[in-house]
Amino acid sequence: MGMALSLASAELVRNPTAVGTSIDVGQIVKGTLYDGSNTEGSFKGDRQVITRTGVYLTESGIYNKRLTINLTIGGLFWFSLPETKSFQTRRIQFGPGVGQAQGVYAFGDADNPAAKLQFGLFPHKYSDSKNLGEYLFRSGTYPGVITTGGWSYLNSAAYLAQGVRLTVPMLGGKLTNDLMFYMERDIEPAHDISPAYILKVNPTSFLEFSGGAVWSHGISLDSKRLSPEVNENAYSKITNKPITGAVDSATVNTPPDQLGYYTFEGVKLMGTASLDFGAMLSSDRVHPGDFKLYSEIALLGVKDQPFYYEKKSERMPLMVGVNIPTFGLLDMLSFELERYKSPFPNTNGSVLQGQLPIPINNGENPYVYDPTDPRYNDATNPEYGKDPFNMTRAELEKKMKQDDWKWSVYARRTISKGVSVYGQAASDHLRHFNFTATPAALPASSRPGQWYYVLRLEFGI
After folding, report:
1. In this predicted model, what pLDDT tens digit does every residue of 9-56 receive, in sequence order?
2. In this structure, which of 75, 135, 248, 401 has its CB flanked by the most CB atoms within 10 Å?
3. What angle do CA 266, 165, 110 make, to 5 degrees?
4. What is the reported pTM?
5. C-alpha angle with apex 419: 414 to 422, nearest 5 degrees?
6. How far apart are CA 351 and CA 411, in angstroms?
């Protein structure tokens, strides 16, 4: 019996425990902070200090050379934003969390698997991005809300997936197939399953392409949540305008049988490409990855819907990035630029607070965001230059204006084994959390000229 136990225990190889901590400090140089609700309430965020401290512990092991198990738990000390005179916004907060709880099973030859099945809670990253991009899983469909960061200011350009992923390499690794079934956790309606597929092509060591699709909320146990039949989510099939905020009689008096309702369900597409000059020029001073161009484009919703989602070009974020060689000065230096031509604010207000698939916050009049409305452009119209809230055209445009362009600079330097320094400056889609841990409806740097920076010191063994 003792020999049997010895043989059984020998099948499990446990890896050394990994522990570490990270300390972040930075500043919102120019920005606007929101209180986490779906209202218009906001606070000037210029020169706001931002700090966070994280700790983590990872346990991992391999059973029978086939099943790898990883578990990471940790905690975060953080401050809520915006800061007010209330003590609730000025005291340090702490929250525990799970970074991963996953298993990976290898099929076939354990040293050269024919396929791998990954399951549980785990980070999924498919591109070279350091901050922007990763649209397929991190972005909404209807509406196309884009997200960066989260609880971690840095090194968070990945999606924390909950579900299963089957990876099948082909042609000696030149083709890789990924089939995923992930549960929606961050984008309403929660609990739905979104099937996805990604094909990655590596024709050479320095060139890579990938393309993918996800059927957002494709498998739902409560399909009524996908398209709520309420007035706030209704539009007229006669005029193709939302019922909420309507001022013309044709839309207001739409008969019930001519009402349509917006839906969360849809198909997202993405494509990536990268060219690694470092791999082409590989030398003592330039290594693979040091000098690399990469890009990603996505279509957040293939099917058009009236009024809000009529133009595909307004649902297509584009990101380009480059790793810049520093010849040993830094481990990594990258710059990323993004353009997203959506005419609506990048808000998650209606999604999180109202569970509605519309790109404006609850209670806001949709016509405020329609620059083609003839009431505002026809000088012979009594409503010329005004909107339902009596704002001038200039005020309306100022209210609507969001920054189509986003940028991010990222740097990393290893000081010694287990000690690294990171830096990031960006105008991106980072949303801060209020004292109830609710993310703001809008990013802090959503308008032109707004940006922040953060530095991190990280220890790990």
Report:
1. 558 899 999 999 999 999 999 999 987 765 556 788 899 999 999 999
2. 135
3. 160
4. 0.88
5. 60
6. 34
Q: Which two tokens stand for residue 238?
A: 């006669």
Helix (H/G/I), strand (E/B), else coil: 267: strand
The residue that leads in pLDDT, 3 or 261, is 261
Computed over its alpha carbons, how large is the radius of gyration of the chain?
A: 24
Nearest one of 350, 36, 433, 355 to 190, comparing CA atoms? 355
Average pLDDT over residues 362-369: 65
Phi-psi region of 37 (alpha: psi -120 to 50; beta: other; left: phi over 0): beta
Closest CA to 214 of 340, 298, 143: 298
Strand, helix or coil for residue 43: strand
- Please give the Cα distance from 42 to 444 (Å, whole number): 10
Give the C-alpha separation, 403 to 427, whole Å: 9
Question: Do 338 and 319 form a contact (C-beta atoms < 8 A)?
Answer: yes
| Cα–Cα nearest to 408, from 343, 322, 282 | 322
The span from the CA of 147 to the CA of 432, in Å, is 11
Query: Which DSSP string do the residues of 160-177 spell out, in sequence order?
Result: EEEEEEEEEEEGGGTEEE
Of 332, 329, 302, 331, nearest in space to 315 by CA: 302
Identify how many contiguous H helices and E strands the chain contains and give both numbers.
7, 21
Structure tokens at 62: 């391999």
Instruction: Give the C-alpha separation, 287 to 213, whole Å.
Output: 32
Q: Which domains does the chain have, with CATH numbers?
A: 24-227+262-460 (2.40.160)
Q: Give the H/E segment covering residue 7.
A: helix 2-10
Q: Count Cβ atoms below 10 Å from residue 64 Cβ, excluding itself.
A: 12
The sign of the torsion formed by the CA atoms of 297, 262, 251, 346 equals negative
HSE-CB for 214 with a 13 A CA cutoff = 26
In the numeric block, the tokens 């801060």 are attached to: 432
239 Cβ contact list (under 8 Å, min separation 6): 248, 250, 251, 254
Nearest to 95 by CA among 450, 440, 435: 435
3-state secondary structure of 39: coil
The C-alpha atoms of residue 429 and residue 262 are separated, in whole angstroms, by: 24
